[in-house]
């Protein structure tokens, strides 16, 4: 049993998809350990996406992720990082399989509904950054 961090992005919150997205993770077998609707400031967004800060779309990414509330979650489950990413689907919705969140609800890589940690180390860091706890 381990943990991951998942966040419904502003487009998913604005479209009223939070309940359906939480349900998909619960149906898969995840347990919700912490969750909060929150508004990110630019500094928090820049830290979260630090690994992309040299990409040409970085400014748009920060604008987008701070454009409205996000729904942040700590999820617990077996092989949490990999299982959550399989529920989420490929980064670009064009490549995301039907039955995944991005495959079913998104069309554009710039607004792809949900984020999931990409490693155990990222999950630990993101849970700490978003929920201010030592985990
Ligand atoms: P995420 O961090 O959101 O779960 O996404 P990911 O691991 O699947 O993909 P990553 O490479 O970390 O990219 C983070 C987010 O940046 C946006 N993006 N935009 N305009 C573009 O070409 C582009 N490419 C990536 C996406 O919102 C992606 O989820």
What's this entry about, in short?
By secondary structure, this protein is an alpha+beta fold. The model has no long low-confidence stretch (mean pLDDT 96). Helix content is 42%, strand content 19%.
Parts with pLDDT < 50 across at least 5 consecutive residues? none
- State the helical fraction: 40-55%
**Intertermini distance:** 14 Å
Taking strands numbered 1, 2, ... along the chain, how are they ordered across the largest sheet? 2-3-1-4
Sheet of most strands? 4 strands, antiparallel
Strand share of the residues? 15-25%
Shape: globular
Radius of gyration from CA coordinates: 14 Å
CATH superfamily: Nucleoside diphosphate kinase-like domain
- SSE pattern: EHHEHHEHHEH
Keywords for this entry:
135 residues; alpha+beta; Alpha-Beta Plaits; four-stranded antiparallel β-sheet; 7 helices; 4 strands; binds ribavirin triphosphate
Secondary-structure map:
Layout: E1 2-8, H1 10-14, H2 18-28, E2 31-38, H3 42-48, H4 58-65, E3 70-77, H5 80-88, H6 101-105, E4 114-116, H7 120-131
Antiparallel strand pairs: 1-3, 1-4, 2-3
The protein binds ribavirin triphosphate (RTP).
Ribavirin triphosphate (RTP) binds at residues 52, 57, 61, 91, 109-110, 112, 115-116, 118.
Subcellular location: Cytoplasm
Domain Nucleoside diphosphate kinase-like: 1-135
GO molecular function, one term: nucleoside diphosphate kinase activity
